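ok trying again, last paste got cut off:
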Amino acid sequence: MQCATHPGVETELACSRCGKPICPRCLVHTDVGARCRECAHLRRIPTYDVALPYLLRAIGTAVVGGVLGGILWWLLLPRRGSIISYFALFFAIGLGYGIGEGVSWASNRKRGAVLQGTSACGVVIAYLLRNVLQGSGLLAASDLFGYVTVGLAIVVAIGRLR
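nice, full thing came through this time. structure:
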């Protein structure tokens, strides 16, 4: 007998529900036996299934959090190159956690790659706004410490939504 999905593959397996021949690549293990993908009713885990209204709320929260975070970053840590700029690392941890938590709350505690990207964009918005408010343009060429700080904030924000 040949697999219904892969016609060139010989098999002795069949779906326990509909009897369709399946190969080991098509096989889905369930509590009641081996089934084909159609009979197994594969669904995404609800935690990772983000509906559009929740996604829009999460995007709005990331943008607002990024704007507020950028303004706070500019106000609290105005100078670059001084000893106070090392406090930016702690600020980045708080910023990343705050934006990640806000996106999580706005999306009804959902998780996943889309929300991780959304929170990372919120952190980038904060960094870009801080640069504009400081008068150094969107991307400062000699701001290696700023890039490290933003990278740390993104890692924390993404980690919050794993």
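cool. Strands lie at 13-14, 21-22, 28-30, 33-35. The chain has a mean pLDDT of 89.
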